[in-house]
Amino acid sequence: MMGSYPASYDYSNYGYWNIFWILLSTAVIFLIVWIIHRFGIKNTTSETPLNILRKRFAKGEITKKQFEEIKKEMEE
Predict the structure, then answer these.
(1) Domain that holds residue 68
(2) Residues 61 and 50 placed together within one structural domain of the fold
(3) CA gap 42, 37 in Å, rounded
(4) pLDDT value at residue 64
(5) Is residue 6 scored above 60 in pLDDT?
(6) In a domain, 27, yes or no
């Protein structure tokens, strides 16, 4: 006995359409994920000028004297 499968049980007609829709769905999901990753929500917390100044001082880009002068100018 060969089983209860129809004689034309292959990928003709409907089988190829199923593969098409699976590939199309996968492509759409991939595209959506890529768009979200590429253009998604950015870090909305903006840094204050004082925080930027502190980071520059911590990295050694400016001296303590420069830090104090710039900080004083910001407070005015």
Answers:
(1) 43-76
(2) yes
(3) 10
(4) 95
(5) no
(6) yes
Give the tens place of pLDDT for each residue, 15-46.
Answer: 677 888 999 999 999 999 999 888 877 666 67
- For residues 74 and 51, is the Cβ–Cβ distance under 8 A? no
Does 57 share its domain with 38? Answer: no
Domain assignment of residue 2, yes or no: no
**Average of per-residue pLDDT values in the chain:** 83
**Would the pTM of this model clear 0.85, i.e. be above it?**
no
SS (H, E, C) the chain: CCCCCCCCCCCCCHHHHHHHHHHHHHHHHHHHHHHHHHHCCCCCCCCCHHHHHHHHHHHCCCCHHHHHHHHHHHHC
Question: Residue 27: what residue type?
Answer: A
Q: Which residue has the tokens 């034309």?
A: 8
CA 34/CA 9 separation, integer angstroms: 37
Could you tell me if residue 3 is inside a domain? no
